[in-house]
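yo

u said u wanted the structure for the complex thing, so here. seqs first:
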Amino acid sequence: MAMRIVRSITSMRALAERWRRTRARVGLVPTMGALHAGHLALVAAARRASDRVVVSVFVNPSQFGPREDFARYPRTPAADARLLRRAGVDALFLPAVAAMDPPGGATVVEVGGSLTRGLCAPFRPGHFRGVATVVARLFAIIRPHAAWFGRKDAQQAAVLGRMARDLHFGIAVHTVPTVREPDGLARSSRNRALLPAQRAAAPVLHEALALAAAAVRGGARTRGAVLGPARRRLARVPGLRVQYLDLVDAATLAPASRPAGRLLLAAAIHLGRTRLIDNRAVRAPR
Amino acid sequence: MAMRIVRSITSMRALAERWRRTRARVGLVPTMGALHAGHLALVAAARRASDRVVVSVFVNPSQFGPREDFARYPRTPAADARLLRRAGVDALFLPAVAAMDPPGGATVVEVGGSLTRGLCAPFRPGHFRGVATVVARLFAIIRPHAAWFGRKDAQQAAVLGRMARDLHFGIAVHTVPTVREPDGLARSSRNRALLPAQRAAAPVLHEALALAAAAVRGGARTRGAVLGPARRRLARVPGLRVQYLDLVDAATLAPASRPAGRLLLAAAIHLGRTRLIDNRAVRAPR
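structre next:
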């Protein structure tokens, strides 16, 4: 069946409701478009577990800070539609900003606690509130049985899983492993903005996290022993600024004072005007 | 058909989903129990507009302040079930606090702006956040087509209407006129806590609002001319404390600097330990 392109909230709600009435399992992949192999891995996972798959493309203004890249965030609508059609998506949901977030709106969905205290949160005030609010809206409109998010945005996935459970949406939040370029760089819509020299340097982010993970697995006992070599690796790259590099508990995302249990290594860097994030799960040896 | 009593969130979700599958229109009346004629008017309105009616009874801890009356809020479960059965309700939803709001939860739904700046809001910090969050949860679990709220809690109804629209729940929020005792006192679960002398004095709240409304209709030009006589009427009652008495725009609930357009007169008083609220809509003459 042909992929439908749905722009109206009312039509999207009605379409999903018709599907639910036939007992179809509905899967949702929320995106901001500029789709790449990482998104297609989410779609493939949704496709396997669902009778109907909806992909939303919505560049959500409220999750960008005033000095962030909302205006220059890449938008490739024709290519997105082509990729999704080929991937067997049933509906592409393309709501307008004016419909999703009309003037006069006053409601936010906010996830507090340790999940939104560290990592990206202090550098992007309001970001996770914007993400939680827009995904709550998508959940309320579409009512999928499950939704898929990428592990590159590990903090986002944790926040949205918490939100879905806390508000009792009855929607399972799944994550899918990060898809990488052959040189290890995590696939990201923002990679398009890298200049050639920046692109050549970018895999260092993945390499630094791999160094830190090796230190954990090798029995490093302190944060310094885990993060020091990674930090030095990043410091060697001209024009690279580290926003954060952290070792956190994998479940709570609270900083780990020493390596123990299930951990997440996560970092954000700037290469020129482009901000890249990546992370890596690791378990400390007993 | 007999009324079902549903305690589990999962069962409630599944029951409402089965109803939706048959295209039944599902109506929801969220309450905190201790039901009275005001609630029954909500149920009757829901009954007229719905194929299936759910009434939830949940005394929501998160909407009570630390010094408020959560512990002594009246609970009359057997009488509630009897009244609802007689009113033709299809399901009574009685979730446990530990299921609705389990430890580790971190998500709140917050309505900002003018709706939550005045009236009850400054005196009950966190109250409307607690209300918006619990009703968002009920909406996410039950997915009714519409929900009914009483106009005695006009600010609550405005906040919840805003929340439902902003989050795109696709749920119509309706209000029902306040049901009153023969002497004008608004029906409220908290009236039970009034001592006889307090109960005898309580209609003054309604009378004071009627005085203020008469002043508006009579062409009073200033806030003072509207609220002064009402304030003096309340001041004559021994043991009565006025928490607020205000003239606000009916749509935004922002204080009206002078009487114009559609207005709401609203007040909260204490009689002993019992807090009572009431309000009255009025339109200023051209």
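Chain B has a mean pLDDT of 97. The domain at 189-278 of chain B is CATH 3.30.1300.10 (Pantoate--beta-alanine Ligase; Chain: A,domain 2).
cya
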